[in-house]
Write a structure and sequence with these properties.
Oligomer: single chain
Structural class: mainly alpha
Shape: globular
Strand content: 5-15%
Strand order of the largest sheet: 1-5
Radius of gyration: 24 Å
Helix content: 25-40%
Largest sheet: 2 strands, antiparallel
Order of helices and strands: EHEHEEEHHEEHHHHHEEHEHHHHHHHHEE
Distance between the termini: 58 Å
Bound molecules: protoporphyrin IX containing FE
Number of strands: 12
Length: 635
């Protein structure tokens, strides 16, 4: 077994779900799995086991509760700390640090890996290609889902790695938190500006917190709950949730402006919106610190905030005897169920394909009763390969110009994304909330391809400067920061054919793109996961290549079966919805209804709201869309 070489006889943690090890359709008939063995010689001897180590002390014991905790503790009664914030990402592959501890990976030649900005510019050029089928909402909802599940821990160090003018700071090469991205002198955007670097600060690890022994690899930490529990709405701790609650009628706090409800103002505008000079503008407070990052994300946050309050108001009217706490927790519980249903049955099929999800037991479209697939042995932790490579691949879907669309679906205006990073005020202007929402469902997302939009590759977070950062470069650099395993080893762990030469990679990657990889990297063992897997052609009926399909499905499978509170689970009557309630959640939860119910005045919506309008998906009156029957919660 090739795997055994990796860890001195210890098997790699196998990817274990459903009948996953089935081969994916392979363009080359004679996929060569044995090739994996040649990489063994490269692995340095390792003394460690890949286990999650953490300084976080989980509760010693748990009380069974009808409701989830905010931090996810006690979801797993045997392992109360599973899935809670401030824990390391799960690793599917061994760490690939150059020194086995924390240094950026290097080439097998011993040299540095190629410059990430150069890779970004060469392999993933700026170009806008429209998706013929899926709308911008499919892109945007994905970011929202990703924020529910992970967030890299950021340092509170004041080190200046690369300053606001793109010049190397005093700490650039001396402070271990710094890993600035160096701009090649021939860079067409930044070269003429004299920009030296893009800022990059390393993720905080278990090692930084003295939670790992000195010779063990540093494990990057995620600071939010891993469960799909709407932590970006409700926060990741009881104290955070308390700041967001109004404690009246089970509602979340809102402020009313212009007759509409908005999230409360963030007390820390400098950190969350970075615009002290514009501190009179809205900078919102929700369960997730990233909510102000872009207008479309802010819209989804506001939609879900309003959805909680809509459910709470209905429950309060139906059950006058319920107190604030009961209404709040029941509304939260229904809201999370609705969200899980949309994610698994409407959103994930767009990218991972319905058949694939059914086959690998991520969804059960035929189920009429409960689906009791909860498995207490499964760890909910988000894998680093998922969060730092696979799921970030959908950054390719981002559109740089946001459409404002009227109710009769005419393009009224468009606006530049980089004008509105961390400046959500645009959603409150006139009737822009509805017009941006209609833009989400009417504008195509950018095609899943190797091309990216320059608004995030040349202008990211530019504020009032001409140019900004590059998300593509950040993604590649973050993979190195976390010591992710390389592309071929990841294919091996996924049970996919393992290439032994660049030419072998043509099974999933087009010849011209393999040629690009061969010019970038000196050796196939240097080829990075994010880079090569992003260049794979889509697996049949999916919007993603085979390697990322494996990593995404592995994650979303675990996210589902590790969650004792998953809405389809009926094993514990204290937690389960009644069958009538479950059926109503299944038939009445939809992206379309969610937007209809919580936008300002939108009256018409296409039923499949991740899909562009087409002959089979025409806008219908909002009232005609199925909805959850909340009277089933009347006591
Ligand atoms: C306008 C849209 C978006 C912007 C501006 C954006 C920006 C960013 C930025 C700046 C980071 C951190 C980069 C770093 O320093 O490592 C990040 C991380 C990430 N993004 Fe996006 N993103 C967007 C959309 C998306 C979408 C559509 C998805 C997935 C469907 C996604 C998934 C992720 C994931 C999984 C991470 C890592 C989360 C973590 O564990 O910390 N993003 N994004």
């Amino acid at each position: 077994n090739c795997y055994s070489n990796y860890l001195n006889g210890k098997e790699l943690p196998a990817i274990e779900f459903g009948d996953f090890q089935d081969k994916l359709p392979n363009a080359r008939s004679n996929g060569n799995r044995a090739g994996g063995c040649i990489y063994a010689q490269r692995m340095r001897p390792t003394k460690y086991e890949i286990v999650s180590q953490s300084c976080v002390v989980p509760p010693e014991s748990c009380e069974k509760s009808r409701y989830r905790t905010y931090d996810g503790s006690c979801n797993n009664l045997e392992n109360p700390g599973w899935g809670i914030p401030q824990q390391p990402y799960k690793r599917l592959l061994p760490f690939n640090y150059a020194d086995g501890i924390s240094k950026f990976p290097v080439s097998v030649t011993g040299e540095e890996l190629p410059n990430v900005r150069e890779i970004s510019q060469t392999a993933f050029p700026d170009k806008v290609v429209q998706d013929p089928k899926w709308n911008l909402n499919a892109q945007q909802w994905g970011q929202f889902v990703s924020h529910d599940m992970s967030l890299t821990a950021s340092t509170d160090s004041n080190a200046v790695c690369c300053d606001a003018n793109g010049q190397l700071g005093p700490d650039a090469f001396t402070d271990p938190v710094c890993a600035p991205i160096i701009i090649p002198s021939n860079d067409t955007t930044h070269g003429p500006q004299g920009t030296q670097c893009l800022n990059f600060v390393r993720t905080v690890t278990t090692r930084d917190r003295n939670c790992t022994s000195s010779d063990a690899p540093a494990q990057p930490i995620s600071v939010v709950s891993a469960y799909m529990d709407l932590s970006m709405v409700y926060g990741n701790s009881e104290s955070q949730a308390n700041e967001l609650r109004s404690f009246q009628g089970g509602r979340l706090l809102t402020v009313v402006r212009d007759g509409r409800e908005w999230p409360p103002q963030n007390p820390n505008v400098a950190d969350n919106c970075g615009r002290v000079e514009l501190s009179d503008e809205p900078c919102y407070l929700t369960g997730d610190s990233r909510m102000n990052q872009n207008p479309q994300l802010a819209i989804l946050h506001i939609v879900l905030l309003r959805e909680h309050n809509r459910i709470a108001d209905s429950l309060a009217a139906l059950n006058p005897s319920w107190d604030d706490e009961k209404i709040f927790q029941e509304a939260r519980r229904i809201h999370i169920a609705e969200n899980q249903h949309i994610n698994y049955y409407e959103y994930l099929p767009v990218f991972l394909g319905n058949d694939y999800l059914v086959k690998h037991k991520l969804i059960y479209p035929e189920a009429e009763g409960y689906v009791d697939d909860y498995d207490p042995k499964v760890d909910p932790a988000v894998s680093d390969e998922h969060a730092t490579a696979a799921y970030r691949h959908f950054h390719t879907l981002i559109q740089g110009y946001l459409h404002l669309i009227t109710e009769d679906r005419q393009l009224e205006a468009y606006t530049r994304l980089s004008d509105w990073f961390n400046r959500p005020i645009i959603v409150e202007v006139r009737d822009f909330f509805d017009k941006l929402t209609l833009g989400l469902i009417s504008q195509p997302q950018s095609l899943r391809d190797q091309f990216w939009d320059s608004e995030v590759t040349q202008y990211l977070f530019r504020r009032n400067r001409t140019f900004g950062s590059d998300l593509r470069s950040l993604d590649i650099q973050r993979g190195r920061d976390h010591g992710l395993g390389n592309y071929i080893d990841t294919r091996s762990v996924c049970g996919l054919p393992v290439p032994t030469s660049f030419q072998d990679m043509t099974d999933y990657i087009s010849q011209p793109n393999v040629d690009i990889l061969a010019t970038i990297y000196k050796d196939i063992r240097d080829v990075e996961l994010f880079v090569a897997a992003s260049l794979e052609e889509s697996a049949p009926n999916t919007e993603v290549g085979p390697t990322f399909l494996c990593l995404l499905a592995e994650q979303f499978y675990r996210t589902r079966v590790s969650d004792r509170y998953f809405y389809e689970n009926g094993a514990d009557p204290e937690i389960a919805f009644t069958l009538d309630q479950l059926r109503s959640i299944r038939s009445g939860s939809s992206m379309a209804r969610l937007l209809c119910d919580n936008a300002d005045k939108i009256q018409f919506m296409q039923p499949r709201a991740f899909e562009l309008v087409s002959e089979g998906n025409v806008p219908v009156p909002c009232d005609s869309l199925p909805k959850i029957d909340l009277s089933l919660w009347q006591e």
